[in-house]
Amino acid sequence: MVTLYEGAVLALLAGGVFFGVVAAVGLLRMPDLYTRAHAASKADTLGAGLSLAAAAAVLASSLPTIKAVLLLVFLFLTNPTAAHAISRAAADQGIEPWTAEDGGGGDGK
Fold first, then answer.
1. 31 Cβ contact partners less than 8 Å away, ≥ 6 residues apart
2. Main-chain dihedrals φ then ψ at residue 86, nearest 5 degrees
3. Of 109, 102, 107, 46, whose CA–CA distance to 34 is shortest?
4. Among 50, 38, 48, which Cα is nearest to 75's?
5. 49-56 contacts: CB < 8 A, separation 24 or more?
6. Which of 29, 30, 68, 91 has its CA 20 to 30 A from that of 2?
7. pTM
8. pLDDT at position 104, please?
9. How many CB atoms lie within 10 A of CB 28?
10. At what angle do helices 4-29 and 33-58 cross, to 10 degrees?
């Protein structure tokens, strides 16, 4: 029988895996750099965050838990910042975002 604590850890880990897969699919399916950066930064940050939260919950010792929480804070600060910097650099280089007129629009206009 799975305890409530184990169920919570499994839920955090399953959420981390789910959002990691969503980030990977977003990188493969999105049409341009800007939407790929958005998919990677949002979903990957949440997926890695949930996985680190599961690791912190399993590591009941104080020092490894503190390290996992510090990694989580660092991840939440640096991942979106890096995606923004990459998108900003692409905009400065003149890379245009994908639009529906570029092809593949779902509404046929």
1. 98, 102, 104
2. -65, -45
3. 102
4. 48
5. 49/16, 49/75, 49/76, 50/12, 50/13, 50/15, 50/16, 50/19, 51/12, 51/13, 51/16, 51/17, 51/20, 52/16, 53/12, 53/16, 54/9, 54/10, 54/12, 54/13, 54/16
6. 68
7. 0.81
8. 60
9. 9
10. 160
Which pLDDT tens digit goes with each residue over 64-76?
A: 889 988 999 999 9
39 vs 31: CA distance, rounded Å: 11
